[in-house]
Write a structure and sequence with these properties.
It is found in: Cytoplasm. Its EC number is 4.6.1.2. With 561 residues, the chain is of the alpha+beta class. The protein is 39% helix and 17% strand. The chain contains 17 helices and 16 strands. Helix 3 crosses helix 6. The protein is elongated.
Length: 561
């Protein structure tokens, strides 16, 4: 069976079957099952067309890997309210869209992916970020949200949802409700506890805190059994240095983000510097998960998520004693601007964050991300530096490619593309400024003819019938510097007002000399109503200048002689 592409929760994705904000919701299936007070009712293709027409969207079929506007789903929901009517609100339809999407992807077998994440609903909630991380290899431009659990009890959990966008709370609630009912066969009640923006840096600054009420007894009992089993086993205490021998690239740090210990190979990468007590962000840079600050609270909540850190070979002086929170844009630029083949390549460490309660510290248990043997000397590493356990050595010897390296190559190309787009935007901006300046000196029609290669003399024309208006600012005088500045501000405000009125009357501004404003109608564009245009403009100028709030008291004008 051919599978379609899948997204789980709202993010920058593709299509309205991956609307930039919806990750997988197929709008064409939307009106085929709309909610009513009696359940689900079939409406068909005709209703879908009415909704699309009401939305003002010219697209009828949404294509995977095509990016659409963030606002499109909300506009479709608003159109559903108007077209379908009833007592359903915008929130009802957004919630329903989320439920529709789960039913949609279940038809293609993607519910098996969710079932495989764990035995319980809590296992799925803790695995959402990892699922999104794997989807980035299919949708590399996707900006996925983040979900983590802050509290678990027998009656449910507290879930925090963080995203770059707002307005999709109900959509997420619909997805969670449908997944709980359809896949895990539990009844779920969702309550929004808090919603707002985070004050910390990071792209995912919009957050929603949910209370999810459901029967969570089996999950808690399972965890308690495992905990009791481990507590019954009499194990002697050991130093955490033993743990670092098992993970030679690992690092242990405190709640203050200070390094307490590091593996032998990681210390070697840092040039055997004395890093104990230094701030972690001065030596390791967060790469995954993306869009969040590299701080203790986030690490504590995201222990179930795969982490990737980049080794900073030479920490900047003065940055190791304080918390450093850099923006995601700065981090991505730093990752991309790597050294060439003559320098030492950056090293990525991939692994899990694990909280050790006995010493109130976090351990990053990891291994380096390496593609092949050719990369080892560029990184200053050898095969015997790698962990004995795991598949690191086997992957290198067989030439398997790490997706993280491939993704980094893509990001490098994408960053260059973004820089090129910004350059083009800047070019267009300066071109527009140049055009505006040019059109302020000569008529636009003349400028375009000169651009097309016509000779300068050929642009000279004679106009038999034109009407010219001279407007002078009266009673504008100054005796002090303060008065002079007020006069200048007043003149600027009046002339700006005049400029905004010219296009309404087919009038061209010839020049401004001192306090005199000169316009003409009938040239350079010929018109039979040139006299009427000038007369209407004169009346409008007289009315508008009286409405202006000017620094100086003088606001009278004289039109004609």
């Amino acid at each position: 069976m051919r599978r379609k592409n899948l997204f789980l929760f709202p993010s920058h994705g593709y299509g309205l079957a991956n609307l930039k904000e919806t990750k997988g919701f197929m709008p064409k299936s939307l009106p085929l099952a709309c909610p009513t007070t009696e359940g689900i009712m079939e409406f068909g293709e005709e209703i879908w067309r009415k909704i699309i027409n009401d939305t003002g969207c010219k697209i009828t079929v949404f294509v995977t890997h095509q990016t659409y506007s963030d606002s499109l789903m909300k506009r479709i929901a608003e159109s559903c309210v108007r077209v379908i009517g009833g007592d359903k609100t915008l929130d009802n339809f957004m919630n329903f869209f989320g439920r529709c999407f789960v039913r949609f992807f279940s038809n293609f077998g993607y519910d098996q992916i969710i079932k495989a994440t764990g035995r319980y609903f809590c296992d799925f909630l803790q695995s959402v970020d990892n699922i999104h991380l794997q989807m980035r290899f299919t949708y590399p431009r996707m900006q996925s949200p983040s979900m983590y659990i802050t509290h678990v009890d027998t009656e449910g959990v507290i879930l925090v949802y963080r995203s770059t966008r707002v307005g999709f709370t109900q959509y997420v609630m619909g997805q969670l409700t449908q997944i709980a009912e359809e896949i895990y066969n539990i009844q779920l009640k969702i309550t929004v506890i808090e919603e707002g923006k985070s004050s910390r840096s990071g792209s995912r600054n919009h957050f929603v805190k949910f209370r999810l009420d459901f029967n969570n007894v089996e999950y808690i009992e399972s965890k308690n059994k495992n905990k009791q089993y481990l507590e019954r086993i009499p194990l002697p205490d050991f130093y955490f240095s033993v743990l670092l021998k098992l993970f030679p690239f690992g690092v242990i740090f405190s709640e203050e983000m200070k390094i307490m210990g590091a593996g032998e190979k990681l210390m070697l990468l840092w040039g055997n510097q004395n890093v104990l007590g230094n701030h972690l962000t001065g030596h390791l840079k967060l790469r995954r998960p993306r869009g969040i600050p590299f701080v203790w609270k986030n690490i504590l909540y995201l222990q179930s998520v795969l982490f990737e850190l980049e080794v900073i070979r030479f920490a900047p002086s003065g940055k190791t004693g304080q918390e450093v929170e850099t923006s995601p844009v700065h981090n991505s630029l730093a990752l991309i601007r790597r050294r060439g083949s003559q320098g030492i390549r950056s090293i990525l460490l991939k692994g899990q964050m694990f909280y050790i309660n006995d010493i109130k510290a976090m351990a990053f248990l990891c291994s380096p991300v390496i593609n092949d043997l050719d990369e080892l000397p560029n990184m200053g590493l050898y095969l015997n530096d790698l962990n004995i356990h795991g598949l690191s050595k086997e992957m290198i010897l067989t030439g398997w490619q790490h997706c993280s390296r491939l993704e980094m190559m893509f990001e490098k190309a994408e960053q260059r593309s973004l820089e090129l787009e910004k350059s083009y935007e800047l070019l267009d901006s300066w071109k527009k400024r140049g055009d505006d300046l040019l059109y302020s000196m000569i008529p636009q029609s003349v400028a375009e003819r000169l651009r097309n290669g016509e000779k300068r003399l050929s642009t000279c024309e004679a106009f038999d019938n034109v009407t010219i208006l001279f407007c002078e600012l009266a009673d504008f005088s100054s005796s002090t510097l303060h008065d002079a500045m007020e006069v200048v501000s007043s003149m600027n405000a009046i002339f700006t007002c005049f400029d905004s009125l010219l296009d309404l009357f087919e009038v061209y501004k010839v020049e401004t000399v001192g306090r005199v404003y000169m316009t003409v109608s009938g040239a350079p564009e010929r018109t039979a109503n040139h006299a009427d245009n000038i007369a209407n403009l004169a009346l409008c100028l007289a009315r508008q200048v009286k409405k202006l709030q000017l620094p100086s008291e003088a606001n009278s004008i004289r039109i004609g002689k």
